[in-house]
């Protein structure tokens, strides 16, 4: 914001959990408190974008699609307004229960024309993804957890639409995004210890747009595919991969881990992830099931 006076911040009364209070303090003339009125905020954001502002609109992930999907579709996506929607509390990563758990946001925004969808793996990817969103001619949705530490380095290796190879391995490839990348890495180390080979781990930080060629090449190098996501398995990362496999005739089965088309509950993130199969245990067990079938 120091370098671009056109950047403005809109906030739907979530300044403390999203740390927008910092912007309010240091850039008060470019900070707008919109209240608990997410749909109205999107309309205002679109209008401000038409005047030349670069608008960052902040709320919880779940309120982007459940409260304001019509406004985002007609006033942001359709006219390709320069709006970056920043959502917090992705998936079931909150104790606040079903009302605050965003299990269908990626599915909704994947189906909206002109929308980018980004999900940083760690704090080093936040700034690059914000810059990607700012530089894009399309509006963007950034699905973000709260990072409780300042980053001292920036991941400059990521490119829009291109999956990031976090770990190059063989036989099994695990596709993950956001909070599930570390889970995939942990599972791969356990599999390496038990089965004497290292699976590949792919970070899909750009859920839309995607470069299909990159995905196809990665999948072709492996004999098994697992996806793990903090989202409903319908419409998200697993569906994205299933479409690539089916549309390109890649003769390989995919197994999808995530919320299995059900609502969750209010509880700590670790408990919920374990209960709903978003865990390294689930990946290892799934791989064991795969190799049993191949015997």
UniProtKB/TrEMBL annotation:
Its cofactor is thiamine diphosphate. The keyword Zinc does not apply. InterPro entries: PDH/Transketolase, THDP-binding, Transketo_C/PFOR_II, Transketolase-like_Pyr-bd, Transketolase_C. Signal peptide: none annotated. Keywords: Thiamine pyrophosphate. Residues 1-152 form the Transketolase-like pyrimidine-binding domain. Transmembrane segments: none annotated. Belongs to the transketolase family. This is Transketolase-like pyrimidine-binding domain-containing protein. It comes from marine metagenome.
């Amino acid at each position: 914001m120091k370098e671009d006076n056109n950047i403005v911040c809109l906030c739907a009364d979530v300044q403390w959990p999203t740390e927008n209070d910092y912007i309010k303090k240091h850039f008060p003339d470019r900070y707008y408190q919109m209240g608990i009125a997410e749909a109205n905020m999107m309309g205002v954001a679109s209008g401000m974008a038409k005047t030349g502002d670069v608008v960052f609109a902040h709320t919880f992930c779940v309120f982007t699609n459940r409260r304001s999907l019509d406004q985002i579709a007609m006033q942001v996506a359709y006219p390709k307004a320069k709006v970056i929607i920043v959502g917090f509390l992705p998936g079931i990563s909150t104790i606040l229960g079903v009302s605050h758990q965003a299990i269908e946001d990626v599915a909704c925004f994947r189906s909206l024309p002109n929308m980018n969808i980004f999900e940083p793996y760690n704090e080093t990817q936040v700034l690059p993804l914000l810059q990607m969103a700012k530089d894009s001619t399309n509006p963007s949705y950034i699905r973000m957890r709260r990072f409780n530490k300042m980053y001292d380095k920036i991941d400059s290796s990521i490119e829009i639409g291109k999956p990031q190879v976090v770990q190059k391995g063989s036989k099994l490839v695990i596709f993950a995004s956001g909070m599930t990348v570390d889970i995939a890495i942990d599972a791969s180390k356990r599999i390496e210890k038990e089965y004497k080979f290292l699976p590949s781990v792919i970070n899909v930080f750009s859920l839309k747009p995607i470069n299909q060629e990159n995905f196809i090449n990665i999948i072709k190098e492996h004999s098994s595919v697992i996806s793990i996501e903090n989202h409903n398995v319908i419409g998200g990362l697993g569906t994205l991969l299933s479409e690539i496999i089916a549309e390109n005739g890649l003769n390989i089965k995919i197994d999808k881990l995530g919320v299995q088309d059900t609502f969750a509950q209010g509880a700590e993130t670790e408990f919920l992830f374990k209960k709903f199969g978003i865990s390294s245990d689930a990946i290892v067990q799934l791989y064991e099931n795969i190799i049993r079938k191949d015997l």
